[in-house]
Amino acid sequence: MKSLPASARADPRRALGRIVVGAAVLAVISYAYALRVAVGDANPFDFFGYFTNQTSALMAAVLIVVGLLATNGRRIPPVLTVAWGVGVACLIVVAVVYNGLVPGTGSAPPWVSIVLHTVFPALVVVDFATAPDRPELPWTRLWWVLPGPLLWVAVVLLRGATDGWVPYGFLLPERGLTSLVLHVFGILVLLLAAATGVWSLSRARWAPRPPS
Question: Is the pTM of the predicted complex or chain greater than 0.85?
Fold first, then answer.
């Protein structure tokens, strides 16, 4: 794996910060899961059926790997770069839906919700926007933002139609097909808008940037 020129490397403190933040988020998610286990709800498919939980866990893992690469001045592989951008876009959706469209949903302690729905998304957006070690995201890979959320929607709708469990009230089958279609369509439009913003942000010129 090629090294980056010095002008395009992340500051060691930034690299360490990514690792610490990623590890802290994984710890918060583990704590929240432990709380569910304590009350007799240990089903991981329910816990990670929440888009926030699975997206935050995956993005935390990506952030740790990106941080480790940055500590060695290594170039981020194209697949990981796209995963980074997709994760940022998904967390923007998490923040917008929770804080703006459906405020206060969920059963986690308030501080856990604040960390996962506000603090973590804000940190990853700021880091990505100002990172000198992230290359431009190719527009031809913008569609990579869709498979994960589409699979999540499919599983949630299948579970809602079979065992009746859904993570969010607006996805309840009894709300009717029209409501489900409109909500899913709205989330996907928001996701594509967020991804377009992230892809555009990757072209920002206020920080040195390695070649794609």
Answer: yes
